[in-house]
Structure formats: structure tokens, C-alpha cells
């Protein structure tokens, strides 16, 4: 078995590890509200979310194609680049999971891909190892940055990254506003009972939307790796059925393990929710995520659900939102892409002198 095949196997394995971590890291997104309101027990909520995650992952590949062909130039994609991108994303996901911060797995992967691609382009421009190790001056007009498809990143990542949390807050605020206006005369016990039942639908809707967006990112990365290695011939970016099914299954398996630290942060540390609040968050979030999936935007489900929770909480009472916790979440959001770019670029520079480079770098 030659080293190119070994590297391809490494890439596929770490891609599945990323998808599995994505499942337990982001399972909080799909189950936190329904657990918080006691509409479902934690165990049943996670099993329910895992099943709907799997089904959602089978619908559409627009996001996968954005990851595969829309963010960096084809010349900057190698097996080593993909390997380093995944490695950086996995480490960041594990760090944020350890500290219970609901950061974005999507942006971790995107940041990793951008950082590794730029590192590869930089190294191709200057092959002198001693210069690379000294890390010479790098400025914003450096030609290595041409590896980034700025138009694709701007339209498919930056704009959705800014707009989707705002939409999450606004839509969450409006949904709870409308529901309270309609049901304000209903007795509290009847209201809670009604919306606990309604959450069985809305939480499933949210889990389905989560699978439709998050599972596709790993599908895109694996397909990109297979094309780079020549396993998939041709220039048309089509996701093989086995990749779709295996990514869907891995995400669902990860979801079943649960991410209890993040679930606690999302379900109780931001606001204290009642069933009508949980229903509002789930409907608002799922609608935005499914729309993004349809247009191929790799959005952060974490960003959208977190800000929808904030929007719903602000409608109830601004002081109901625990803004100290929100501040920590926002810091994780802001840091994700640049930190993952730095991590993946560092891994690339560390590995580029190894035998892996001859096979994939």
C-alpha cells in the first residue's frame, strides 16, 4: 500500500471523526430546548434528534458542493491540505466541547480549509524550508491569499455568518411575539401542555434541518478528497451515495452520544424556557437553517439557535437572558474561523517536510 493511499485513508477516517464529533458537539442545538422544557427526556430527545438528523442529511447536496468547490482554488487543494483542515477543526471542536462552549463546527471546518489552502499556496511560492520555518513577513496583499475564492467566501460564508445570527434573533423574537399575542388568554397549565406536545413536531423539524446542513459539510470534504486522489474521475462534483449515507449515519451516531456540557449551557444557562419559548426557538431556527441549506449556505446551526434563544428571551424580558454566558459564546464564535485557520496552517507547515508531503502536499 503506497503512501498516497494511506494518506487518503487518513483523510477519510479523520473526516468521519469530525462528523462524529460534530454530532455530539452540535446535538445540543437540536435537543437543548426540548430537554429544557421537559417535553422529552434527555435520552428520548437525543434518540429522536439522531433519527431526524439522519433523515435530514439525505436531502440535498447544495451545501456539500459549496464546501467542495466554492471556497478555495482547485490548485490549492491537496490531500495534505484537506487532512490539516480537518485536524484543525477537530481540535477546535474538542476544545470548545471540553469548555462547554457551543461554537460552530461549520466555521471550524471552513477556517481549517482556508488556513491550510493558504499555507499550501504560500509554501508553493517559497520552497525554501528555512524561510518557511522563520515565518517571514506575511501581509494582506500576499499572493498566497489568492488561494481563497474571495467571492465565494464573501457570499457563501461571511454574509450568512453575519446575517443568520441576526435573523435568528429577529425571527425568534417575532415568533414568540405572535404566539403570545394569540395565546395570552390561555391558562398557563393548558398553554404548557399544548406546547409540550407541539414541541414533538418542532424539535423534529429542527433536528431534520440540522442534518440537512451540518452533515453535508463532511460529504463535501470527503468527495473533494476522493476527487483529488483520482478515485472519482471527471470534473463534475457529485456526491457518491455511499458518502451521503455514511456521513448521515456518522452524524446520527455522534448525536446519540450527546454533548451534555453544551446541552446544559444552551438549555438553562442562557435563559429559563417554557414550552412556548422552546417551540418558538425551534420553529424560528429550523426555518432559517432549511432555507440556508436550500441555497447552499454552510451556516452555523449553533449561531442561529443561540441567537433565536436570545431573541425569545429578550421578548419575555431582557434581563431573562444571561448576557455573561452570551458573551462567552460570542467570543467563541468570533475566534472560530481565525483560530482554525491558524491551527490548520501550523499543521501544514509541520507536516510539509514529512513523507506525507510527497503524497499529498
| Count of domains | 1
Number of strands: 0
Distance between the termini: 18 Å
Number of helices: 14
**Can you write the helix and strand succession as a string?**
HHHHHHHHHHHHHH
Low-confidence stretches: 128-136
In short:
The protein is an all-alpha fold. 77% of the residues lie in helices and 0% in strands.
Question: Could you name the key traits of this structure?
Answer:
mainly alpha; 77% helix; 0% strand; elongated
Characterization of this structure:
This protein has 361 residues and is mainly alpha-helical. The chain has 14 helices and no strands. The protein has one domain (3-352). Helix 2 crosses helix 8 (188-228). The relative contact order is 0.23. Residues 128-136 have low confidence and may be disordered.
